[in-house]
Amino acid sequence: MILRLKVELVSCSFRIAFGCCAALMLTAFQSGCITTRSDMLREINADMGRIQQELNSKQTQRQQMTEERRRVIEEMNAKLREEAEQYEPAPALQPTAPGGSVLSTSIDAPSILTDTQAGTAFRRAQAFYNRGDYKDAAEEFVLAYRYAGEENMQARSLYWLGESYYRLRDWERAISCFNKFETEFSQHKLASAAQLKKGFSLLQDGQTVSGRATLRILIETYPGSAEAPLAEQRLKETE
Question: Which of 9, 95, 146, 151 is deepest in the core (most CB within 10 A)?
Fold first, then answer.
């Protein structure tokens, strides 16, 4: 439909232009400005040639604008995909969590993936976690942690594995992950968050003395962190 309208518009433009040119040529011919019919036809053809060039130029400009718009959209989509892959949910700081089944996957399983595949597993785990599918998220975070060659990826995978177990109320595995994080990645930016969730997990597991001690260590070790006030609040709640 759009193509037919464009063709009709172009055809109409030609008819109008031809009519105008013919009228002008006839007037000029009658007034003596153009002496022969051949001169009039040459002038008409010249005018029609100029009109055609203008139409071709406008068509080229429209095509260029369309291509530029398509390029911008593709760049925006690529950027959105990249940001989506890098997105990471904020650490869950509240101690409550929905129930779930216990996983059997070991974080010390034999190596079967490449580093690239580990990155893919991490992104899948993020998607599961953000949807609330913590069991599937944990299984993918296990793979990402175990087979990632880059230290930051390992640290993030281990932390979010602990968060997934925490959400599943699997306190024993959550504590194990956060203990391992404390041992392997004590300087990582998520270290204070890992210690907070370790303290919460211990309290949830009934290990009140160890949980309170962990939260006090957090306050002393990371006094300016966002987790320190949360640790203080939870200590007051357990007094």
Answer: 146
